[in-house]
Amino acid sequence: xxxxxxxxxxxxxxxxxxxxxxxxxxxxxxxxxxxxxxxxxxxxxxxxxxxxxxxxxxxxxxxxxxxxxxxxxxxxxxxxxxxxxxxxxxxxxxxxxxxxxxxxxxxxxxxxxxxxxxxxxxxxxxxxxxxxxxx
Length: 135
Hints:
Elements: E1 2-4, H1 6-13, H2 19-30, E2 33-34, H3 37-44, H4 50-61, H5 71-87, H6 95-106, E3 111-112, H7 116-124
Parallel strand pairs: 1-2, 1-3
């Protein structure tokens, strides 16, 4: 199982052909792609109309959603990761990235992404396993 960040899902929906999207397509074929509640939120809030929203909602509800039962714990750990990054002069652009990172850490799965903030967070928290961006 691999947690897939919203950046990659959005690129897939926009038919962008990037290396992370190609990897996501393979993960979907193998049934190995997962999301989290905040990733679903980020994708759903970009829906262009009610029909698109409903279709995306049904799709994401059918995926494995990591961290869905540990909400409070995840948010506290995400806040701690954000603070630790700031203490090292790294300010993530989105606190959601910290929530996604700690979800991957706690579920012990790698994170497929296309967002430089995760590279910075991995220097703060070495338990964050990232799918290499180049390969």
